[in-house]
Design goal:
Elements lengths: L1 E4 L4 E5 L6 E7 L4 E7 L2 E6 L3 E5 H85 L5 H45 L1
Antiparallel strand pairs: 1-2, 2-3, 4-5, 5-6
Helix pairs in contact: 1-2
């Protein structure tokens, strides 16, 4: 090792063969006036004080500091690997949940589609029955008042059922759209 000092208040150790900086003893509090090395000792004289360092002690302190940094790095690496494993598990769980939700959405979509078809069929049947009742009502102008009242009641009943089925169809279509939106949101989330 080769030691150097300067008026910038620092002492630096260099490798004797490569002249590369090994480490610095840091700020000495004042400009270094003289530096003397003997065996394992380094004497530093500056405007304020005299300091004696043992090169072996300084070297050991640097080695210990490097080991502490290495241990901290290894601990950080282990923590990051654990976090990565945790995120992989979370990702896998979210993927499984997404598949389940997609399957449920497909089942629900199929059920809702079938229900809508059934409602449309019932709606068409009721519309046909209503048209038949209206046609019969128009031809039977000679019927009694009681028969007319019964037909009017039947027509009102069919119209109410038609309105109810139309509302149910609208509600089912809205539920289907909401389910598709939820499925799309889950896909985007992953």
């Amino acid at each position: 090792q080769v030691w150097s000092a300067s008026r910038d208040k620092s002492i630096i150790a260099h490798d004797a063969q490569t002249c590369q900086t090994l480490f610095s003893l840091g700020d000495q509090g004042a400009g270094v006036k003289a530096l003397f090395s003997h065996s394992w000792y380094v004497w530093s004289f500056n405007m304020k004080n005299i300091k004696v360092y043992t090169a072996e002690g300084v070297w050991q302190a640097q080695v210990e500091e490097a080991l502490k940094a290495l241990k901290a790095l290894e601990a950080t690496k282990a923590a990051m690997e654990a976090e990565i494993q945790k995120e992989k598990a979370n990702s896998h769980a979210l993927g499984m949940k997404l598949r389940e939700v997609e399957a449920e959405a497909e089942r629900s979509k199929g059920e809702l589609g079938k229900r809508i078809e059934d409602l449309e069929k019932q709606l068409a049947e009721l519309q046909a029955a209503l048209d038949t009742e209206r046609a019969a009502h128009g031809q039977d102008s000679e019927g009694t008042a009681k028969a007319l009242a019964e037909r009017d009641a039947r027509i009102k009943e069919l119209e109410a059922m038609l309105a109810e089925l139309t509302k149910a169809k609208t509600d089912l279509e809205a539920a289907k759209a909401a389910l598709e939106a939820e499925l799309e949101a889950l896909r985007k989330k992953l």
